[in-house]
Design brief:
Blueprint: H1 2-12, E1 22-25, H2 30-41, E2 47-52, H3 56-73, E3 77-81, H4 82-86, H5 90-98, H6 105-123, E4 128-130, H7 135-147, E5 171-173, H8 181-190, H9 206-218, H10 220-241, E6 248-249, E7 256-257, H11 263-272
Parallel strand pairs: 1-2, 1-4, 2-3, 4-5
Antiparallel strand pairs: 6-7
Helix pairs in contact: 2-8, 7-9, 7-10
Length: 274
């Protein structure tokens, strides 16, 4: 079932063209590993891209799993080392930022990871960057954006993300978009993928966790209804909130940004402030 869902999603939403160079953002978890495996099985030639965050034993085990999987499946793997890029591990960077700003762990880590993934994928020639977001993730994020009145959040929604084409931005796609979290878990266990099922030890998103708990009580139908209804109104939302949106480039790093300084550089600037 999950294989057909992924195949149908790619076809219906034109996620991958014959000339696309596809990279999968791999965390070492069940979702990205499943996406990587299915793209290879469906005849695409994906490459894996992972960031070694150096979050203790958790990162070490994830990296070992990714290397084992890619070697077995004969998939090219590109590893980005946090210390090579920033001079420090993610944990150390986060601790420095949090001494001066009240920001959650996931906010800091997510911002820096997205910036780094886009930059490295582009440098490697990627035209599409696959993320492992599944139907549960999308339903949760939809509700979180509504509750927080976060219009900007909708630019990352849908099987394809973004509203502006730009040579510096590698479009994200979500082949697992209509796959339930429990089905991805069951599939990865059935296939005996070498993955960790435990969450990041630094995870701090209690709001998402509370939304997830309520949605789980409501069941799969509620999640599907949320996502299906979002897709009906998403084009109008994007058009209404961003009619003449232009992508800018960060004045510090030159990467795509909504503002003069991108979010990643804003975080790093916190560390540099005296």
């Amino acid at each position: 079932m999950i294989e057909k869902q992924v195949k149908d999603t790619i076809k219906k939403y034109h996620l991958i063209g014959k000339n696309d160079k596809v990279f999968v953002a791999c965390s070492g978890g069940k979702d990205s590993t499943t996406a990587l495996y299915l793209l290879k099985k469906l005849g695409y030639r994906p490459e894996a891209l992972t960031i070694n965050l150096e979050i203790g034993e958790w990162s070490k085990r994830n990296l070992e799993n990714i290397k084992e999987f890619c070697e077995k499946e004969k998939i090219p793997l590109h590893v980005v080392e946090m210390k090579n890029e920033f001079g420090f591990s993610m944990c150390y960077i986060r601790s420095l930022i949090q001494k001066r700003a009240k920001l959650k762990n996931c906010t800091i880590c997510g911002t820096i990871k997205r910036w780094l993934m886009n930059k490295k994928a582009r440098e490697l020639g990627a035209t599409k960057l696959v993320t492992g977001h599944n139907l549960d993730d999308e339903a949760e994020t939809t509700l979180m954006n509504f509750f927080k009145n976060n219009a900007n959040g909708f630019t990352t929604m849908g099987p394809k993300t973004g509203i502006i084409d730009d040579s510096k931005f590698v479009q994200r796609i979500k082949p697992l978009y209509f796959c339930l979290n429990k089905d991805v878990t069951a599939y990865s266990k059935k296939m005996k993928f070498p993955v960790l099922y435990e969450k990041c030890p630094c995870s701090s998103d209690s709001f998402r966790r509370s939304i997830r708990n309520e949605l789980d009580k409501m069941g799969p139908k509620a999640k599907r209804n949320i996502v299906n209804n979002l897709l009906k109104i998403l084009p109008d939302i994007k058009k209404s909130y961003f009619p003449n949106r232009k992508l800018r480039y960060c004045s510090v790093c030159g990467e795509p940004s909504r503002n003069e300084v991108c979010k990643a550089c804003s975080l790093i600037n916190i560390i540099k402030e005296k």
